């Protein structure tokens, strides 16, 4: 199994909530599959609130450290042989998670409930982490009574492909590596829409005509994007899915039973706030299992 650089680990944010513990377990399994160390991190920063009773900062810090130790001990018991480290980071949650994630192979965070993200994704904090991270971020749901939140065991990796081969290289690379580590296949999904009336010019539609129509053109684009990854991972079965429709809706229509869903996020800085893109937003809110958001150019 290929090893990542020594400084890379799978980082996971924990805070004692059920969703963060589910994220820690998923991250531990992922680290073991990839032959990587696991790094547990918790943000802790004493922030006095005007008008609130003075709290014992030392006792709170001790409780936070005990939590990290307990989670680390549980992970080591469940995954003997896995290298596990932990760190209490003296910073607010968003900067702490970004610092840990940007130094890691990936960052794993917890999410709760079906259709609404809470925990680390409460308010704009989770969106900010996903939107600003330089490395992939995986959101893991806590298990629910109506289905597994941490992904179906043995389920394929579903990946959304957009743009050309260069634009989707990081996303496809992450998906194929995840599938190879699990010994499962990849389902690559490409959604397309009809061109606007202003796009119907001879020059703009020449590539479509040469491909034999819109559907063959989209199928060819997906095949070309997949070609280098098929070559790099010859043992990973691949299913291709091309469909007319909204990218988020098309992707969500095939995620049932998936072990992991992988989507891309274009790296860009908005003048006000942070954005993760409509496709990533839809999948994060509605996919039943883990979702990896991979930044790309």
Summarize the structure.
The protein is α/β, with parallel strands linked by helices. It is built from nine helices and ten strands. The chain has a ten-stranded mixed sheet, sandwiched between helices.
Count of distinct strands: 10
**Shape field:** elongated
CATH hierarchy: architecture of the largest domain: 3-Layer(aba) Sandwich
Instruction: Give me the strand/helix succession.
Output: EHEHEHEHEEHEHHEHEHE
Report the uncertain regions: 1-6, 113-123
Strand content: 15-25%
Let me know the average pLDDT: 84
The tally of structural domains comes to: 2
> What portion of residues is helical?
25-40%
CATH fold category name of the largest domain? Rossmann fold
**What's the CATH superfamily of the largest domain, by name?**
HUPs
Structural class: alpha/beta
Distance between the termini: 27 Å
The neighbouring-strand order within the major sheet is 3-2-1-4-5-10-9-6-7-8
Return the CATH class of the largest domain: Alpha Beta
- The Rg value, from CA coordinates, equals 21 Å
Largest sheet: 10 strands, mixed
Helix count from the secondary structure assignment: 9
Organism: Streptomyces kanasensis
Domain UspA: 9-141, 166-295
Protein name: Universal stress protein UspA
Family: Belongs to the universal stress protein A family.
Structural account:
- This is Universal stress protein UspA.
- Pfam families: Usp.
- The chain has helices at about 20-35, 55-80, 95-100, 125-130, 170-180, 200-210, 215-230, 245-250, 280-285, and strands spanning about 10-15, 40-45, 85-90, 105-110, 135-140, 155-160, 185-190, 240-245, 260-265, 290-295.
- Helix 5 (about 170-180) links the parallel strand 6 (about 155-160) and strand 7 (about 185-190).
- Helix 3 (about 95-100) packs parallel to helix 4 (about 125-130) and helix 6 (about 200-210) packs across helix 7.
- The longest helix is centred in the N-terminal third of the chain and has 22 residues, at about 55-80.
- The protein is built from 9 helices and 10 strands.
- The protein is of the alpha/beta class.
- The protein has a 10-stranded mixed sheet, with helices on both faces.
- It folds into 2 domains: about 10-140, HUPs (Rossmann fold), CATH 3.40.50.620; about 155-295, HUPs (Rossmann fold, 3-Layer(aba) Sandwich).
- It is elongated.
């Amino acid at each position: 199994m290929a090893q990542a650089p020594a400084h890379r680990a799978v980082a996971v944010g924990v805070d004692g909530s059920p969703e963060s513990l589910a994220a820690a377990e998923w991250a531990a399994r992922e680290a073991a599959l990839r032959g990587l160390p696991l790094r547990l991190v918790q943000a802790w920063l004493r922030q006095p609130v005007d008008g609130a009773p003075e709290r014992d900062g030392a006792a709170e810090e001790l409780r936070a450290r005990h939590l990290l130790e307990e989670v680390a001990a549980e992970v080591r018991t469940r995954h003997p042989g896995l290298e596990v480290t932990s760190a209490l980071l003296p910073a607010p949650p968003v900067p702490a998670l970004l610092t840990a994630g940007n130094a890691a192979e990936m960052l794993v965070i917890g999410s709760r409930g079906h259709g609404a993200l809470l925990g680390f994704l409460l308010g704009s904090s989770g969106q900010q982490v996903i939107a600003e991270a330089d490395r992939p971020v995986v959101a893991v749901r806590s298990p629910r009574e109506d289905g597994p939140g941490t992904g179906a065991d043995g389920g394929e990796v579903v990946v959304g492909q957009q743009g050309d081969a260069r634009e989707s290289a990081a996303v496809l690379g992450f998906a194929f590596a995840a599938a190879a580590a699990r010994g499962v296949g990849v389902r690559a999904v490409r959604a397309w829409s009809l061109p606007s009336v202003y796009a119907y010019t001879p020059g703009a539609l020449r590539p479509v005509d040469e491909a034999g129509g819109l559907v063959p053109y989209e199928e060819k684009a997906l095949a070309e994007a997949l070609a280098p990854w098929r070559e790099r991972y010859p043992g990973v079965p691949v299913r291709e899915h091309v469909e007319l429709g909204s990218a988020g809706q098309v992707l969500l229509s095939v995620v049932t039973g998936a072990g992991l869903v992988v989507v891309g996020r274009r790296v860009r800085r908005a003048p006000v706030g942070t954005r993760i893109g409509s496709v990533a937003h839809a999948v994060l809110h509605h996919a039943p299992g883990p979702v990896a958001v991979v930044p790309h150019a």
